[in-house]
Design a protein that fits this description.
With 404 residues, the protein is α+β, with helices and mostly antiparallel strands. Helix content is 52%, strand content 11%. The strands form two sheets. The chain has a five-stranded antiparallel beta sheet. The chain has a two-stranded antiparallel sheet with strand order 1-2. It is globular.
Length: 404
């Protein structure tokens, strides 16, 4: 047994050294050659543990993220347990099956539609090919739904099992891909575009997408298959339709009833006393969901504890984020801002913070409030999000009741 433990420790130490050597300037070929000398295979769980260890040792998430594309090159073809875990890929409608079918459609779109037309573009623009490339990238933008489901449905459950490094790294790369796709579409929609530059930028992001497909299929999915319980898959499946699908839709649903209803899903009907009056949980829930804005409450331990579910929600918040660290609910680029606000509330330096942004046809007002008890003790943070565009456009007066 001690030999097995020591061997495992050696493997992790050596793999960490190889990844760090990439950071320090070694070429991919040099690392790949050294990797093949020491390892015939490597498991998905070891990849997860290595990334986790690197981050715990102080290597920034952004640095691990920068190496993520290299991981795919080094580890490709060397992952031993790709097919050793539960195979959900052939169960119609299962979240894994849906995810894999979307990845097949993404690969087909890139390899059979976008790449051939993109590579046929020369200095003299073929307008038909150019149009097909633009249509292809417009369709590729649907990948937003695919990534959002991964980030807001899969990642929370991995984090509940203390697997945090791969989600952080993947989310960072997802954001890079999102930004790169938007940049290419902006180029395609501009006049006087440089075709050579367009092709270079487009090919870079398309390869990033294909690399992410590989990582999802061969690292993320096996990791989830060996980690998630049946009940967790059911909860993921229930929340999936809220986000929509990418390029393809499942031909049938995957319906499995859990043996027991979780305690958190049971509704308590007793009266809840407030400073002025009382409400049943049903009344309170209905009132909060009727408010013309979104509320999200993060408790004193920085865990998402509650959010409203009104008819017109501005940002998607699946139930899987309940109990999740708030810092893990945001892209890596915005985590420091969120943590700074909460820390200022905890320290008593601030009571609120406001932001406002324009997003498509919305004017979004985002407000953060410190929530305290009667003695001033910090209980958590309340986020209030509202589309104030209709309010800012009000003019004159309205004194009569509307017909509808």
């Amino acid at each position: 047994m001690s030999e097995l433990i020591n061997n495992s420790e050696f493997r992790q130490k050596k793999l960490k050294e190889l990844i760090k050597s990439l950071h320090e300037g070694k070429t991919v070929d040099e690392v790949k050659s050294e990797f093949q000398k020491h390892f015939a295979d490597v498991s998905t769980s070891e990849i997860s543990q290595i990334e986790q260890a690197l981050i715990k040792e102080g290597l920034a998430v952004e640095e691990v993220q920068r190496l993520c594309d290299v991981h795919a090159t080094v580890f490709k073809g060397s992952i031993s347990d790709i097919h050793s875990t539960k195979d959900y890929s052939k169960i119609p409608g299962h979240p894994v099956n849906v995810f894999i079918e979307e990845n097949k459609a993404i690969e087909e779109l890139i390899n059979e539609d976008i790449f051939p037309n993109l590579r046929s573009l020369e200095e003299k623009i073929d307008h038909n090919k150019y149009l097909l490339v633009r249509i292809g990238f417009d369709r590729l933008q649907e990948i937003e739904r695919h990534y959002s489901r991964k980030e807001y449905l899969f990642f929370p459950y991995l984090e509940k099992h203390n697997i945090t490094a791969p989600p952080k790294v993947m989310w960072g790369v997802d954001d890079e891909i999102r930004a790169d796709i938007k940049a290419v579409i902006a180029m395609l929609n501009s006049t006087g575009v440089n075709i050579i530059q367009l092709k270079e930028q487009a090919e870079v992001v398309l390869q990033k997408v294909l690399d992410m497909v590989f990582k999802e299929n061969n690292i993320l999915i096996p990791l989830m298959a060996e980690t998630f319980s049946l009940y967790e898959w059911i909860k993921i499946d229930e929340a999936t339709p809220e986000f929509g699908y990418t390029l393809v839709k499942p031909t049938r649903s995957w319906k499995v009833e859990p043996e027991e209803t979780s305690q958190e899903d049971k509704v308590v009907s007793e009266e809840i006393p407030f400073d002025a009056g009382s409400l049943t949980s049903e009344e309170a829930n209905a009132i909060f969901n009727t408010l013309p804005f979104d509320l999200t409450f993060v408790d004193k331990d920085d865990k998402v504890k509650y959010f409203t579910q009104g008819k017109e929600r501005i940002f998607s918040r699946p139930k899987t984020i309940i109990g999740r660290e708030v810092s893990l609910c945001h892209p890596p680029a915005s985590v420091k801002i969120v943590e700074g606000i909460i820390n200022s509330f905890k320290a008593g330096e601030k009571e609120h913070e406001d932001f406002w942004i324009r997003l498509e046809n919305l004017f979004i007002h985002i407000r953060y409030f410190a929530v305290r008890d009667r003695n001033g003790n910090y209980l958590g943070t309340l986020e209030v999000t509202q589309n104030i565009k209709p309010i800012t456009e009000l003019e004159g007066e309205k004194r009569l009741v509307s017909d509808k």
